[in-house]
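ARCHIVE CARD
CATEGORY: sequence design from structure
SOURCE FIELD: tokenized fold
FIELD CONTENT:
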């Protein structure tokens, strides 16, 4: 049944119902139920169809939100799906895990006193329905091109680029060192936020459309970047960032102090049915333990909530700032609190305690002082506040940096920024190496899935334009990784020798 629009005045905001904390912590299933059709239509009808839609401006993909809300309200779900999928390669995934409170929904301009439209939940509903109805189809190019593109990294950035390039007819090979497609969607983000089946069906769709995946293949170990460049007409690097930041405190070598990705990967593998020796031995299993997680971002939230589900005796999260200054999404903090996690704000670890294995940390209290150059208040130690916090397992969730790709890829000329991310020319998405592009976290630093999708799409468009120009014999603009805010660290930016590019089109 069609709903009239502008219903925000008489219809209250209603998210899909959330499972009770007690029930949801006994399994790893997603915590939100699905909308039923009338509810999705009713909630979509709350939109006031703004002339200048701030929701759309603040969505990294600039999704045409008002239009797909209107179609949903009018019961025209197939059209809603057409519009939604035109700008997003994985709307059902973004609908589940985007921090909407900081992006689209956080900028919805519905009158003060009325809450935002539930954009993410409706986006998820539209595409879940499309999957059920069989409207989601593999990329199917109108014509095949002989040029092949090598993509390094099968995370959301690589997947989005692969789909776009395949649609254009390119032969696409995606290399990944993991044994499954999805990157952090599979081995980082826990099932209770994103069930793995949802990622698997996206990977299958790409395979069905002719994208080839070469898994268990690590660039740097199984081939150098140069070898891949000789095989393909263009390369996209979408390898993400995985070097865990550390708190090199006294006692750091004790047992039972682990990194967040080690913990989350083991848990995700377990959920996927893999046998994980360190989990079976109890080393990476939080069950029955007093768990202490260090950090206040979304990775820390995923660790605390995973530990709860594994049956930890207690779970604490230690963060040196206060709740309003936590980098993680407020929704995730709320979920964690509902699930019994204790937050120890304004506290920082000083040392790990124990003989062989950790038995706790010595911590100090923090007060927030004057703002620094970035405007954030500087944490200051409160004198004489040293105290002990007991723990049997300490998980460090302190963020990630890029690996040293020029060394790993045996390509010392590859330009990197002062942060170690890959330097690209933001107009062309190309690195300083001819025909080598980059996208996602490896360019931005640890970021979001929706930004990786955006970058993958942009890089695909740039690769297409680069190869079209080559085919037409036109010069490509020289790429300057310093354009657009990316600073070169001083590494050689010497152009690598140009390769012969297969130009023929079938
Ligand atoms: P990745 O997803 O990291 O994929 C990179 C791929 O490259 C991996 O599969 C890796 O195996 C492969 N690779 C790396 N090096 C090589 C090599 N040498 N050879 C071959 N393959 C290689 N974002 C959100 O929007 N919402 C969330 O809720 C959210 N939760 C998160 C939770 C955790 C625990 C973490 C760690 C991140 C989370 N993020 C979240 C961030 C998000 O997952 C990333 O921003 C996004 O996955 C980046 O995509 P990407 O394609 O650039 O890289
Ligand atoms: Fe909002 Fe993310 Fe969807 Fe954009 S992709 S509309 S930011 S949920
Ligand atoms: Fe609708 Fe809110 Fe977007 Fe306006 S800002 S178009 S009300 S969803």
């Amino acid at each position: 049944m069609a709903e009239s629009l502008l219903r925000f005045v008489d219809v209250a905001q209603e998210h899909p119902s959330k499972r009770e904390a007690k029930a949801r912590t006994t399994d790893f299933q997603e915590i939100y139920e699905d909308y039923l059709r009338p509810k999705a239509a009713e909630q979509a009808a709350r939109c006031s169809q703004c002339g200048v839609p701030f929701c759309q401006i603040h969505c990294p993909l600039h999704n045409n939100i008002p239009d797909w809300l209107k179609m949903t309200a009018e019961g025209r779900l197939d059209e809603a799906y057409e519009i939604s999928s035109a700008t997003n390669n994985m709307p059902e995934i973004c609908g589940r895990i985007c921090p909407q409170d900081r992006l689209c929904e956080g900028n919805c301009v519905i009158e003060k006193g009325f809450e935002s439209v539930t954009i993410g939940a409706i986006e998820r509903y539209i595409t879940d329905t499309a999957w059920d109805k069989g409207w989601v189809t593999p990329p199917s190019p109108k014509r095949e091109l002989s040029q092949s593109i090598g993509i390094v990294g099968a995370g959301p950035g690589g997947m989005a680029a692969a789909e776009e390039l395949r649609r254009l007819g390119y032969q696409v090979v995606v290399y990944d060192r993991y044994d499954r497609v999805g990157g952090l969607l599979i081995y980082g983000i826990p099932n209770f936020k994103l069930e793995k089946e949802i990622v698997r069906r996206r990977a299958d769709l790409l395979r069905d459309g002719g994208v080839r995946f070469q898994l268990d293949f690590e660039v740097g170990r199984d081939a150098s970047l140069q070898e891949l460049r000789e095989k393909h007409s263009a390369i996209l690097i979408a390898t993400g960032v995985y070097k865990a930041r550390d708190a090199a405190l006294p006692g750091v070598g004790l047992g039972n102090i682990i990194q967040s990705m080690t913990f989350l990967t083991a848990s995700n593998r377990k959920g996927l049915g893999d046998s994980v020796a360190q989990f079976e031995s109890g080393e990476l299993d939080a069950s029955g333990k007093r768990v202490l997680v260090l950090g206040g971002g979304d990775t820390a939230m995923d660790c605390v909530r995973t530990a709860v589900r594994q049956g930890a005796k207690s779970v604490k999260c230690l963060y040196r700032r206060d709740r309003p200054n936590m980098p993680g999404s407020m929704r995730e903090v709320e979920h964690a609190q509902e699930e019994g996690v204790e937050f120890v704000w304004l506290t920082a670890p000083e040392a790990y305690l124990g003989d062989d294995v950790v038995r706790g940390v010595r911590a100090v209290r923090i007060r927030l002082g004057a703002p620094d150059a970035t405007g954030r208040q500087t944490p200051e130690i409160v004198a004489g506040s040293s105290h002990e916090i007991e723990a049997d397992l300490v998980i460090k969730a302190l963020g990630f940096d890029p690996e040293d790709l020029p060394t790993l890829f045996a390509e010392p000329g590859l330009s990197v920024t002062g942060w170690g991310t890959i330097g690209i020319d933001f107009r062309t998405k190309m690195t300083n190496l001819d025909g080598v592009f980059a996208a996602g976290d490896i360019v931005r630093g640890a970021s979001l899935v929706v930004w990786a999708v955006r970058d993958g799409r942009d890089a695909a468009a740039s690769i297409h334009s680069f190869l079209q120009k080559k085919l037409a014999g036109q010069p490509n603009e020289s790429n300057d990784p310093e354009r657009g805010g990316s600073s070169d660290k001083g590494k050689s930016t010497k152009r690598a020798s140009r390769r012969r590019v297969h130009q023929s089109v079938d």
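CARD ANNOTATION: The pocket of iron/sulfur cluster (ligand 3) is lined by residues 47-50, 53-55, 65-66, 108-110, 117, 119 (CB under 6 Å). Residues 360 and 390 are 4 Å apart (CA to CA).
SHELF: design records, drawer C
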